[in-house]
């Protein structure tokens, strides 16, 4: 029997009384493992098996933590699924330990570089893109029309520019623009406009009468500078119809393209990377293969001096007490608690709680509840100290591991991580999604070999080899780290970029619509 066919389960922590069956297609009842465990039930791939007899009320332990209590007796070898367990309450925020277990720094990792576009403000781009910001949805279709023409008529004349990207969105008017929640979408759009991959070339298209005027979108001080070099096209200032509107936008774009075309890649230390981590369409394998491998790569990046962001509030909420303990200082831990508390309240007002997070696909994939999903999710964050916390859409300035608060929604998280300054994105998936972003490369990591085999032209890294024993977490972690440097240098293309799969920008707007 080959290594890949032998019955195998993965146990994460020595205290665990459940493990995950990793064989593709699952295993039938009666299957005997090398250690003598015999399956009492058929168990689907990535689902849990009881390693001991469990009585009603017993804690079900995975990742060394209680992920639920048995609501009836489960015998050794039995299938431990969602219907048999009751999830615990979320850890209370008031009693989270503050910086009580800050990890010591890992040894520095020198000598790793990539070829990036260095900007005057010190940030480094991984692509060379003309970014066109918009103040309101009213202009989106017109900008889309102009961008299509730019790509065919202008871009071939500026071969050093990779792409033209319009940041279109539903915000900007018909919204309570002075409500407290408005700060989040506005700063998101402002920080997107100044993304490292846009090379400091600001371009804004405005309608004219909208609530979010260009001066509100852009930071104080930026627009006076722009008066010498116009960077805003206002549609309602045109007097000769659509033709003039489009011509104005095209003329402005061409000035920016000419300057962007002068940019050249230079050798930059890995410390200039700002890597955003995310998962989507997770399964129970994500937490033992893809996410730990990304966590190992995250530790390498932190050792190399880079910034690594993890996000997705509802997927870390149940591990809040572990992350506050890991904070570098009590202040960082309190910042983390503040973001969790804000989101608890946001969900409460909406009549929901964190249990709304797991999807039918997550559950079919073996994730019983949000606690199990959270424990698998934070494996992405590696093992280093939490150095900082940013609110939704805020720019991250710290090096090391940072929590950037975002919803778990793939598109909202990706958009907010871009606003935070992300120049490389690592995305793990078990169920599979063709996710991609126009503004920064997205490396997709599969949690299981079945997905990697079914989607060879969508998945960039297969972490399923960890489950079959063909590779270790460290092997795949190094593979991801090296691939990040290659992709950031423009030497390799992700599958999403190869196919041009770029999802929409989706803003997080907790404020009222009018
Ligand atoms: Ca997500």
Structure, briefly:
The chain is of the alpha/beta class and 514 residues long. The protein is 30% helix and 17% strand. The strands form 5 sheets. It has a 7-stranded parallel β-sheet with strand order 17-18-16-15-19-20-21, with helices on both faces. Strands 1-2-3-6 form a 4-stranded antiparallel β-sheet, with no helix packed on it. Strands 11-10-12-13 form a 4-stranded parallel β-sheet, with helices on both faces.
3D structure, described in words:
- The protein is of the alpha/beta class and 514 residues long.
- The protein has 3 domains: 9-88, Archaeosine Trna-guanine Transglycosylase, Chain: A, domain 4 (Roll); 115-262, Rossmann fold, CATH 3.40.50; 273-499.
- It has 16 helices and 21 strands.
- A 7-stranded parallel β-sheet has the order 17-18-16-15-19-20-21, sandwiched between helices. Strands 1-2-3-6 form a 4-stranded antiparallel β-sheet, with no helix packed on it.
- A hairpin with a 2-residue loop joins strand 4 and strand 5.
- Calcium ion binds next to strand 15 and helix 12.
- The site of calcium ion has 7 residues, from strand 15 and helix 12.
Note the overall shape.
Answer: globular
Number of strands: 21
Derived from helix and strand composition plus strand pairing, the structural class reads alpha/beta
Give, in spatial order, the strands making up the sheet with the most strands. 17-18-16-15-19-20-21
Major beta sheet, specifics?
7 strands, parallel
Hetero ligands = calcium ion
Mean pLDDT, to the nearest integer, reads: 94
Strand-residue proportion: 15-25%
Radius of gyration: 24 Å
Measured as a percent range, the helix fraction is 25-40%
Oligomer: single chain
What is the overall number of helices?
16
Intertermini distance: 65 Å
Q: In terms of per-residue confidence, which ranges show pLDDT below 50 for 5 or more consecutive residues?
A: none
């Amino acid at each position: 029997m080959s290594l890949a066919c032998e019955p195998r389960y993965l146990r994460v922590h020595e205290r665990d009384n459940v493990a995950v069956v990793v064989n593709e297609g699952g295993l039938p009842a009666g299957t005997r493992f090398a250690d003598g465990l015999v399956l009492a039930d058929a168990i689907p791939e990535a689902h849990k098996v009881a390693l001991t007899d469990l009585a009603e009320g017993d804690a079900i332990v995975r990742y060394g933590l209680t992920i639920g209590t048995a609501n009836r007796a489960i015998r050794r070898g039995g299938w431990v699924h969602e219907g048999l367990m009751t999830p615990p309450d979320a850890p209370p925020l008031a009693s989270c330990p503050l910086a009580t277990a800050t990890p010591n720094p890992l040894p520095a990792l020198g000598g790793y570089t990539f070829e990036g576009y260095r900007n005057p403000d010190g940030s480094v781009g991984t692509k060379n893109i003309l970014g066109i910001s918009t103040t309101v949805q009213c202009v989106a279709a017109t900008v889309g029309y102009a961008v299509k023409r730019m790509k065919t008529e202008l871009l071939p004349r500026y071969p050093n520019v990779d792409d033209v990207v319009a940041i279109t969105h539903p915000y900007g008017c018909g919204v309570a623009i002075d409500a407290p929640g408005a700060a989040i979408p506005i700063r998101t759009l402002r920080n997107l406009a100044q993304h490292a991959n846009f090379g400091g070339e600001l371009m804004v298209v405005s309608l004219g009468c909208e609530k979010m005027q260009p001066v509100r979108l852009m930071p104080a001080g930026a627009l006076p500078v722009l008066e010498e070099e116009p960077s805003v096209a206002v549609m309602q200032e045109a007097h000769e119809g659509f033709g003039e509107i489009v011509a104005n936008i095209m003329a402005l774009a061409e000035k920016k393209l000419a300057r962007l075309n002068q940019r050249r890649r230079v050798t930059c230390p890995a410390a200039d990377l700002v890597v955003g981590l995310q998962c989507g369409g997770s399964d129970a394998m994500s937490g033992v293969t893809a996410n730990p491998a990304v966590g190992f790569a995250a530790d390498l990046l932190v050792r190399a001096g880079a910034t690594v962001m993890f996000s997705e509030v509802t997927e870390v909420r149940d591990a809040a007490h572990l992350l506050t303990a890991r904070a570098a200082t009590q202040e960082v831990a309190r910042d983390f608690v503040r973001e969790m508390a804000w989101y608890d309240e946001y969900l409460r007002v909406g009549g929901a709680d964190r249990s709304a997070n797991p999807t039918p696909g997550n559950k079919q994939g073996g994730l019983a509840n949000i606690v199990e999903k959270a424990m698998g999710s934070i494996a992405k964050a590696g093992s280093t100290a939490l150095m900082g916390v940013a609110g939704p859409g805020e720019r991250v300035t710290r090096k090391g591991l940072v929590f950037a608060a975002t919803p778990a929604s793939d598109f909202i998280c990706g958009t907010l991580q871009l606003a935070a300054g992300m120049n490389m994105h690592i995305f793990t998936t078990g169920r599979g999604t063709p996710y991609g972003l126009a503004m920064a490369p997205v490396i997709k990591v599969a949690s299981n070999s079945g997905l990697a085999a079914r989607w060879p032209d969508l998945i960039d890294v297969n972490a399923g080899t960890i489950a079959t024993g063909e590779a270790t977490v460290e092997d795949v972690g190094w593979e991801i780290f090296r691939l990040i440097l290659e992709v950031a240098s423009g030497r390799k293309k992700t599958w999403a970029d190869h196919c041009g799969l770029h999802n929409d920008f989706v803003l997080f707007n907790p404020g009222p619509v009018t």
